[in-house]
Amino acid sequence: MKRFLLFFVLIFPLFISAQEQFSVYFETNKHELTKKQTEILNNWIITNKESKVVAISGFTDEDGTNVHNDSLSQRRVNFIHNLIVKNNVKIRDDFKTRSFGETHNQSRNKAENRKVVIYYILPKDLARENEILGIKPVEPVVAEVVPIEEEDMHFPANATLEEKVALAKPGTKIVIKNIFFYQNSFGMMPTSKPAMDELIDVMMKNPTMVIEVQGHICCVKADARNLSLDRAKQIRRVLEGNGVAQKRVKVKGFGVSHPKYPIPEANEEQALANRRVEIMILSK
């Protein structure tokens, strides 16, 4: 019951604005319909064979005890539900019923309170059924990727980027060598073109591969301007401009938080190792 209560609270406001509703009414202390109300329900059934029922709610007037009225409203719901099923009206797989008894906003006219309300979606709106109900698709659970340093993969000496990617598994980080930026800028120098062409080629040859471009800088205590992230974004822009879908390229800037060598670096070789761009393979 708790599950249904949550379901109902979530979608009830949408019933008013996005769905159809139809009511039938009952005599005092009765859970079966009069001849007139049966005819009204049958006409609705005939015209709604292709509609889909998503919920049924039952109500009573305030006469009698709460326990009695709760039971009565549930019997009314069951009665209508059985008629709908018997007449092959479509019903959602997770169809729910709800009995309110007298615990609802009562009309001054008691006859208007003794009712069952059917909530349904018209055939023309069935393509938008989940949208109308406010049901979002369940996002797949993606296992957390454990980073693997390039050194730990023991790639063959002089292996190309393509060869490394072929041997790599999710989590593998690969340094993209010879990508150069202007000083204190995310502008990429023309000498970076061969390395970028190689990366573009690898992405095209592996159309399902998703990567994270990771930017790193050197020589300073902090990446105050977030330059490492801006450079990673610039690489993504170049990839996207050459036909690689943006959703395949995540970006992250690590600043100076993941240096290969302690800062300040002892020499230019160490600075170059710290000032790098890596890709981490998220999935292949």
Automatic annotation (TrEMBL):
Keyword Lipid biosynthesis carried by entry: no
SUPFAM superfamilies the record matches: OmpA-like
Record keywords: Membrane, Signal
All residue ranges annotated as the OmpA-like domain in the record: 17-124, 170-284
Transmembrane segments: none
Signal peptide segment: 1-18
Keyword hit for Membrane: yes
Pfam families hit by this protein: OmpA
A GO CC term assigned to this protein in UniProt: membrane
Protein name: OmpA family protein
